Amino acid sequence: MQLWKGRFSKEIDPKTNDFNSSIKFDSRMYKEDIEGSIAHATMLCTQGIISSDDLGLIVEGLNNIKTEIENGELLIDPNAEDIHTFVEGELTQRVGAAGKRLHTARSRNDQVALDIRLYLRHECDDVYKQLTELIDVLCKKAEQYAGAVMPGYTHLQRAQPITFGHHLMAYAEMLLRDKERLIDAKNRMNYCPLGSCALAGTTYNTNREMTAEALGFNGAMQNSLDGVSDRDFCMELASALSILMVHLSRFSEEIVLWCSWEFKFIELDDAFSTGSSIMPQKKNPDITELIRGKSGRVFGDLTTLLTMMKGLPLAYNKDMQEDKEAIFDAFDTVKMCLTAFIPMLDTMTALTDNMRKAAAGGFINATDCADYLVGKGLPFRDAYKATGEIVALCIAEGLTLETLPIEKYKGICETFDEGVYEAINLDKCVNDRTSLGGPAPQNVLSQVERVKNLNK
Predict the structure, then answer these.
(1) Which of 155, 167, 196, 224 is catalytic?
(2) Separation CA 193–CA 220 (nearest Å)
(3) Which of 152, 303, 403, 437 is most deeply packed, by most CB within 10 A?
(4) CB 171 within 8 A of CB 448
(5) Is residue 103 annotated as part of the catalytic site, yes or no?
(6) What angle do CA 304, 307, 310 make, to 5 degrees?
(7) DSSP state of 400
(8) What is the pLDDT of residue 4?
């Protein structure tokens, strides 16, 4: 059934109908379509636009349709133009003229704008819950490894000593921002377009604030053109999801590195790894590799939405039908990635001995060596130069800062004494970094408590 057939004398070409149809992807919004229709019908009745008898038939019919779809008694017709057409057609078959009155004072333009907002509210809540769970796992792991010394990196070169707990909490901070972005976008989305009709509102005495309140919105959209043509919320949510996927992809890349024999900082549980079809020794971090790859898919969904909207005049254009496939795919992909990532991280084991061994071999305590000289009164730039010469000497002689004899230290700078060995001790280097945000174990534990409180 096409709701617009009155103007046309010919049946639509079947291939054109398939091209025009959105039922394959918007059928997932059947609950939202029914919820919005019940709110709309209730408002129409309250305003005296339809009778209470019609309202009773509409509400009962819509609830029955919802129940039958959910229990499998009623299958959504794949030949329907869209979910809105299917539900209205099914309702009219069941309740007759009352069903035909449901569409009074609304258009499919404001109807679909409503449905997608209602649907994406639930999707935001789902991802928010998953992020909360992931942050909880990170906090648990960070507490466990608050004192596990590892090298921190810049340019993928060993740089300064940190702890594994400190590293994990960096991702917890990123994910907190991801949650904030989702909530901010959801709040900006939470205004009701229903009643904007096709683009110019209606001559009926409707009450848009009533339907907005009934559907849990913060209010009604204030401009009818904007009400039907706005898809900022799709672009904004896709942007928030893209940034989230950047974070998951960066984390995944580190896990891939840490799993390698070159690092061997962590061990993934066998349940979250795969093998090779030809190399029996392999244990591959496929989940993280897939997440790394799927990030591009979400970025593509954002690009689709931006490109789709950039040249559209007001108000509604059929191009906007493409919004659903893109934003639905973005949410589906993110939820799938989080579903796999959370238990994988929860069962991951840190190989702390390997981390500490790596930390001991990269001169990552050189800054502390220079700071030791500064504490003795040497200007920082002079201390920096002397420490650089010490590192070069260690490399030439196959030694470390810990094993270089004090005579060699003094040969480069007389300010050195035996106290340097305490200053460059890795545990001391980490424990003394108590500045806000630093890797000292007590700092990590304080950060965990702060994040736990914010993550509730």
Answers:
(1) 155
(2) 6
(3) 152
(4) no
(5) no
(6) 145
(7) -
(8) 41
pLDDT tens digits for 23-77? 998 999 999 999 999 999 999 999 999 999 999 999 999 999 999 999 999 999 9
* Contact predicate 221/227, CB 8 Å: yes
**pTM for this prediction:** 0.91
Whether the CB-CB separation of 351 and 263 falls below 8 Å is answered with no
Cα gap 80→157, rounded to integer Å: 58
Active-site pick, 51, 52, 260, 276? 276
Contact 128, 179 (CB under 8 A): yes
> Do 448 and 143 contact (CB within 8 A), yes or no?
yes
Calpha distance 251→447 (Å, rounded): 19
Q: Which tokens hold the place of 149? A: 């010394």
Residue 29 DSSP symbol = G
Rounded Cα distance between 315 and 312, Å, is 8
- Compute how many other C-beta atoms are within 10 angstroms of the C-beta atom of residue 349: 10
277 is a catalytic site residue: no
For the chain, the farthest-separated pair of C-alpha atoms sits apart, in whole angstroms, at: 101
Helix (H, G, I), strand (E, B) or coil at 153: strand
Cβ-count burial of 112 within 10 angstroms (0-12 exposed, 13-18 middle, 19+ buried)? buried
Structure tokens given for 82: 């869209």
Instruction: Assign 22 a pLDDT band (cuts: 50, 70, 90).
Output: confident
Q: How many residues does the chain have?
A: 456
- Give the pair of three-digit tokens for residue 456: 């509730």
3-state secondary structure labels for all residues of 275-320: CCCCCCCCCECHHHHHHHHHHHHHHHHHHHHHHHHCCCCCCCCHHH
CA angle 132, 138, 142 (to 5 degrees): 145
